[in-house]
Amino acid sequence: MIDQQVNNLIKMLDQIIANNRHHGDDDKVTDVAADHLHKFWARSMKQQVIECANENPEALSGLSRMTIGKLAGAADSKESLPHPQCDEDR
Amino acid sequence: MLHYYDPSIQSYEPSKSGLNPDFDYGTPASVSETLVSISVDGRAITVPEGTSVLRASALAGINIPKLCASDNLEAFGSCRLCAVEIEGRRGYPASCTTPVAEGMEVTTQTGKLAKMRRNIMELYISDHPLDCLTCPANGNCELQDVAGAVGLREVRYGFEGENHLDAEIDDSNPYFSFDPSKCIVCSRCVRACEEVQGTFALTIEGRGFDSKVAASQNDPFMDSECVSCGACVQACPTSTLMEKSVIDAGQPEHSVVTTCAYCGVGCSFKAEMKGDQLIRMVPYKGGEANHGHSCVKGRFAFGYATHDDRIKEPMIRDSINDPWKVVSWDEALAFSAKKLKGIQAKYGRESIGGITSSRCTNEETYLVQKLVRAAFGNNNTDTCARVCHSPTGYGLKTTLGESAGTQTFDSVMKADTIMVIGANPTDAHPVFGSLMRKRLRQGAKLIVIDPRRIDVLNTPHGGEGIHLPLRPGTNVAIVNALAHVIVTEGLEDQNFINSRCDTGAYNIWRTFIAEERNSPEAMEEVTGVSASKVREAARVYAGAGNGAIYYGLGVTEHSQGSTMVMGIANLALATGNIGKEGGGVNPLRGQNNVQGSCDMGSFPHELPGYQHVNDPKVRERFQSVWGVPIDDEPGLRIPNMFDAAIAGTFKAMYVQGEDIAQSDPNTQHVEAALKSLDCLIVQDIFLNETAKYAHVLLPGSTFLEKNGTFTNAERRINRVRKVMEPIAGMEDWQVTMALSNALGYPMNYNHPSEIMDEIASLTPTFTGVDYDKLEQLGSIQWPCNDDNPQGTPTMHEVEFPIGKGRFAVTEYLATEERASRRFPLLLTTGRILSQYNVGAQTRRTNNSDWHEEDVLELHPSDAELRGVSDGDWLGISSRVGHTVLRAKLSTRMLPGVVYTTFHHPGSGANVVTTDNSDWATNCPEYKVTAVQVEKVSQPSDWQRDFVDFDKRQQALLKPAMGQQESRHANTLK
Ligand code: SF4
Ligand code: SF4
Ligand code: SF4
Ligand code: FES
User: At the top level of its lineage, which domain of life is listed (chain A) (predicted)?
Assistant: First the structure.
């Protein structure tokens, strides 16, 4: 089952794609959408949609899956940053 | 600083011209560039052509007595006190209405003139009560001063004749009284209401001896058209129109210039004090945003600062069902730090976040986001701009390269066509609304795109405006239709497009917009606005010399808010209305410092100065000053924080000066989120709705209690100056600093000026800003750096920060929030003049006399269909919630559209608004909610729960409030 939070993210992603359809073919549109998520979504939000795409791909439209695929590719090539201030305190 | 339309603006800059903003030069400055030389009592002076002899004399240091003249009003020539002799002319012309002429020789003092002036004063005084010693204006009365100046020694006519000494006082306005017995019928008030405010509420009724000042149809002020802006009170040379606070407390003895903390106009005021008591706020003529004008909020609604509800001591509790406990600052901060660290240890670094306030200063906002990024170690910072102007940031940055409006307010005085989209300046930005009305009276054309017939369309003497009453949610459709007409009818400014805009982007956009499906005819069905009207509006906008667009939340608070902002920028680019005075794209920012809070890096993806967190070079600079690594991923936005809280991954929040529980949409969802937090730290001046869910309450300080800066909607950085000590001992920036220190991330600033220095060192658009320069120049419009050391009044004059302007394709997509059989009406929300946003301040002042409750405005035809009459209780249901409001029938909206405000928490306006949001920024779609309304007899379940919860929380606060009072009294001793 997909929780409300992920449902909201899926809805947001659909909305982003719909508003960027004019950029051209699917490849271009999903580039723009993936870039938007990259720039504006928090790490946890990205992780949640990536997980959803892995576990429940059927919950996503084709373009959403394609966007998330691109996002996941970009995320793989980058490690999350440690933060001494807080990580130390833990 | 550049010259705008009126040299007086420059003249009011004390450092620039030597002119004194506290001095009345008698008549307005002339705009002429031709200079004329005259002599006054043998002194030579050169002034612009068109200057009055009275003003020229004042500039030469010779003060001719005057009563009916004032330099913010056109000369009227009624009192004759200012009479002079002019070589070669007959008689004694009034110097206020006589313009200078080359070589003119003026004499201001002769025996004849002195006698004439004494005679005039004698007549005035014979019908004026001689109770100067007990008069509230005593010590600050122009009539008294002039009587002294002309040497009045006797009044031969006696006081027995016919007079007005028994005229009745009108006390109806809560803030000022009108005592006609003291009136000298100089008509300054009437002219101030017309020329400065633009309301035309006052007239001089009757003739000769019987003439008197009347509000509307001889109504009490409160029942008249008066909007209580105070312009007449300020203009009155006697105590006829007088602030009640001065009547009560006497004349103030010192004053401090500061900036209004209500709306994004950012008016400058003199806070006039008696010791540490604020007696009155007088709009400051040296303020470049307001030039001495004000509205009812900034002018009069300051009483909340000393209201009994103020939180004066820190308080804590473990659960929201516990009573509050008053503790020391140290204890409250240690408690907060322990909770925050514990939560991070248990749930991870990203499980906490902070919200900066658009009501607080730039320096305070900067510190909160710094606290989040440096001490919390994540980017979970956001601000209330999320729910208002975040699409402005996105849309303008994409098209013009900078997230801000392009003009000064004064620029409107050079506009030939003014287009107002989804904004209501006369209510929400009143002082700018008055300026706009002034320009409309001078003949500028007006286009209004709004579902409601807003007041600016009814500007007295303002000509006929074009109103495009579109269906809520169809903004993009209409802006595309306007652009379609401009493109297909050849109304573009090809020179501008070729030289200033990116050709590739333009060509793509042009092909898109020229498609038939974007034509007004094709869109008519969608927008409900007739194609011919849209064509007319497009021609008027594009055909004008200067076309200026002003927009507000009616643009941004939609599912396509960002798209619409880009659509507006497209219009301005296509017509070459960028980079010049009189044109531009102007977001009317809601709160006093919403521009500043965005500038200061409140958004989760941007460091101060709109610098993206994923840019390593940017992070590097911040890291070197802050001494800690900065997360390279954006953080959560407010709605994402709520979702994460409900999901159990987001556990603590530090909220400075924002009432998210009342202001954010889908109240029940917000309440559920707040209830699921383990630690909510609220820093505010009152127990607001959000604080009722809090575990730590840190007392905030009002704008009167701190130093700092606000940035208004024209990017103007204005000083906020402390006029009284903070009620709880700490200014808000000091509290954030102390919290940071408690968390182990050291912050040590001694004054907000040091914070500004740090901001300037890290923000390319602020590098030239410092407190000394602010002191010198009065205010600075950013960007202020090596290229523009004095600031930048008009943006993009030569190029855009992104080089060329970028047209953006703006495809219209209908919102999912559509009227249906179940919810056939569209609800849209807004605000009114006397109340401010969530109303936490204004509800605690007499401004509530104008707006005691939020009502639901609906069209008579919708009312009839449902058997509803004025004043009935109406249940309003949407797919997320239900609330009850009183009905008000109004033809200002189209049938099918209903309207309400959200100034009172118990109204629950946001219980019905949904969490639909802008696709790019998540700015909520407040302006469109599909609803049904029906007559009901009782409040909604939510409203009943609200009342119960409020009662319970007030009860949990009460003992602590008692305790704080006695502790506070002890510390004061
Ligand atoms: S307070 Fe303002 S609106 Fe009211 S009468 Fe005076 S000038 Fe006019
Ligand atoms: S009320 Fe004051 S400003 Fe108005 S006419 Fe009388 S004296 Fe002049
Ligand atoms: S217009 Fe705005 S800034 Fe000016 S006084 Fe009114 S509320 Fe304050
Ligand atoms: S001041 Fe000139 S006539 Fe009154």
Answer: Bacteria
Closest approach of chain A CAs to the CA of B921, in angstroms? Answer: 8
B476 contact partners, CB below 8 Å, separation of at least 6: B560, B563, B564, B567, B810, B811, B812, B813
Angle at A82 between CA A81 and CA A87, to 5 degrees: 150
Span from the CA of B847 to the centroid of ligand 2 (angstroms)? 24
Dig out the tokens for B602 from the structure.
């409140």
Q: Which residues of chain B have pLDDT under 50?
A: 1-16
No. of H helices and E strands in chain A?
5, 0
Bridge partners, B258 (sequence order)? B269
Distance CA B781, CA B1 (A): 10
**Opening angle at CA B192, ends B187 and B197, nearest 5:** 150
Which position has the token pair 């797919």?
B879
Distance CA B339, CA B702 (A): 27
Token couple for B839: 């109303």
C-alpha B554/C-alpha B587 separation (Å) is: 11
> From ligand 2's centre to the CA of B844, what distance in Å?
30
pLDDT for residue B137: 86
Query: Which 24-83 residues of chain A touch chain B by CB within 8 A?
Result: 36, 38-46, 80-83
- pLDDT tens for B469-493 read 998 889 999 999 999 999 999 999 9
**Cβ pair B238, B184 in contact under 8 A:** yes
CA of B205 to the centre of ligand 2 (A): 12
Chain B hits for A88, CB-CB cut-off 8 Å, are: none
DSSP annotation of B192: I
List b or e across B39-62, with b for residues whose CB sees 16 or more CB atoms inside 10 angstroms.
Answer: bbeeeebebbebbbbbbbbbbbeb
User: Which residue has a Cα nearest atom 2 of ligand 2?
Assistant: B236
pLDDT for the residue numbered A82: 44
Judge if the beta carbon of residue B81 lies within 6 A of ligand 4: yes
Q: What is the pLDDT of residues A26-56, one digit of tens each?
A: 999 999 999 999 999 999 999 999 998 889 8
Spatial CA neighbour of B75 closest among B107, B40, B51, B102: B51
Tracing tokens 């521009």 back to the chain, one arrives at B595
Instruction: Retrieve residue B298's tokens.
Output: 């900034």
Closest CA to B902 of B692, B713, B665, B671: B665
CB contact set of A10 (below 8 Å; sequence gap of 6+): A2, A49, A52, A59, A60, A64
Between chains, do A90 and B344 touch, taking CB under 8 Å as contact?
A: yes
Residue B162 pLDDT: 64
Place of tokens 């904004």: B423
Check A21 against B377: CB less than 8 A apart: no
Complex confidence, ipTM: 0.85
Which among B72, B73, B79 is the best mutation to test ligand 4's pocket, defined by most ligand atoms within 8 Å of the CB?
B79
Nearest ligand to residue B220 Cα? 1
Strand order in the sheet with B315-316: B325-326, B315-316, B696-699, B679-684, B652-656, B352-356, B381-383
Flag if A18 and B813 touch (Cβ within 8 Å).
yes
CB contact under 8 A, A83 and B378: yes
CA distances from residue B716 to B267, B312, B599, B792, B860 in whole angstroms, order as listed = 11, 32, 12, 9, 43
DSSP-derived pairing of the beta strands B547-551 and B585-587: parallel
Q: Are strands B679-684 and B716-720 parallel, antiparallel or unpaired?
A: unpaired
Instruction: Please answer yes or no on whether B349 and A41 come within 8 Å at the CB atom.
Output: no
Residue B844: its pLDDT value, please? 76
**pLDDT for B325-350, tens place per residue?**
999 999 999 999 999 999 999 999 99
**pLDDT at res. A33:** 93
pLDDT of residue B17: 55
Residues with Cβ within 8 Å of B814's Cβ and at least 6 positions away in sequence, in order, are B473, B474, B526
